[in-house]
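Hi all, posting the design record for the shared folder.

TITLE: backbone redesign
STEP: 1 of 1
STRUCTURE INPUT:
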């Protein structure tokens, strides 16, 4: 991070170095760096010193992020330049930055938090009655995000995406994400030793810090994901027909032909997968990204009656509340099916 004089911004450099030291992924650090760059631009435009910022001035950062053109005053309602989720992520970064600076004694920090009893949660743990009176730390600066349903793919749409792929590698990647709910970073970090075939078909997701393609397993916790025989047959077909021979690489997903970004046999990177999904979206008319396949898998498990605890374990969430908040959705189809079941039960009761 450089200032207007092309000199390193020391407080930001220290914070990013700290994030790297505690094992945050390169993508996370890059996102945090971008958020801090925006904050430094806000400080410059507002003629503020980062060491003397207060809560009121920090709240003005929200307006700065929203305003498409801060130099123009308009009486018309303007569309925010950034989404509520993006703004909240920026605020999380800045609050974390000031917490770190306070810990190392660089500043007194910003009083951006309050302590309150645990707020209402959809999911109550078994020992909730013991901890419900415990105060939790909450951030004062947080805007309300609209609850949007990202949607789910149908099995037919997934098949369309698979058929639109040009290689077995890409077909296998689509099937893998759909049938396991793996994060894209977890999939791109898989090694051949993680793929267990035979009597027990399963995939071991291991947190590794030495991936040369800079991908990470987000949760940092090892887990096993059970899969069916058909998915492993896709894996075997990819290995037999397309996987490069005589390469010094044990990654499952690698560059298989030129021209491509990277040398043949090198592990796939995020950018290559992003390009694949953009091509598939354009070719099929189905707007898709890797996380939508994860979301679809989780939703199908919940609709099939899986316990939330099992879904949490399979997806690798550290907190079951994350699973509930992110993946429990009721569509019009769900409501109609439940209503039809209700009518059927009512009709049966009336005939008795």
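Okay, here is what came back for every position:
SEQUENCE:
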């Amino acid at each position: 991070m450089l200032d207007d004089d092309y000199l390193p911004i020391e407080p930001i450099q220290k914070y990013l170095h700290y994030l790297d030291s505690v094992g945050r992924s390169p993508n996370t650090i890059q996102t945090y760096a971008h958020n801090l760059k925006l904050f430094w631009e806000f400080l410059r435009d507002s003629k503020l010193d980062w060491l003397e910022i207060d809560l009121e001035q920090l709240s003005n950062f929200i307006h700065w992020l929203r305003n498409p053109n801060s130099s123009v005053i308009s009486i018309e309602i303007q569309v925010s330049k950034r989404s509520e989720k993006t703004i909240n992520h920026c605020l999380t970064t800045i609050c974390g930055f000031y917490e770190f600076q306070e810990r190392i004694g660089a500043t007194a920090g910003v009083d951006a938090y309050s302590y309150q009893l645990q707020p209402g949660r959809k999911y109550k743990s078994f020992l909730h009655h013991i901890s419900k009176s415990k105060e939790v730390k909450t951030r004062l600066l947080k805007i309300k995000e609209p609850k949007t349903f990202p949607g789910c793919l149908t099995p037919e749409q997934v098949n369309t995406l698979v058929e639109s792929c040009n290689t077995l590698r890409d077909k296998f990647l689509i099937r893998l994400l759909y049938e396991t709910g793996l994060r894209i970073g977890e999939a791109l970090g898989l090694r051949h030793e993680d793929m267990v075939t035979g009597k027990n078909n399963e995939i071991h997701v291991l947190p590794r810090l030495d991936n040369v393609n800079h991908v990470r397993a987000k949760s940092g916790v090892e887990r096993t994901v059970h899969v069916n025989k058909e998915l492993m047959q896709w894996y075997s077909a990819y290995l037999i027909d397309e996987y490069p021979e005589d390469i010094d690489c044990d990654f499952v997903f690698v560059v298989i032909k030129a021209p491509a970004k990277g040398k043949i046999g090198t592990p796939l990177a995020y950018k290559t997968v992003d390009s694949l999904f953009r091509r598939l979206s354009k070719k099929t008319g189905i707007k898709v990204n890797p996380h939508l396949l994860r979301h679809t898998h989780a939703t199908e498990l919940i609709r099939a009656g899986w316990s939330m605890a099992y879904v949490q374990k399979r997806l690798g969430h550290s907190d079951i509340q994350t699973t509930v908040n992110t993946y429990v959705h009721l569509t019009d189809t769900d409501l109609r099916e439940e209503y039809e079941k209700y009518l059927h039960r009512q009709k049966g009761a009336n005939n008795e």
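COMMENT: The longest strand covers residues 113-117.
Let me know if anyone wants the other runs.
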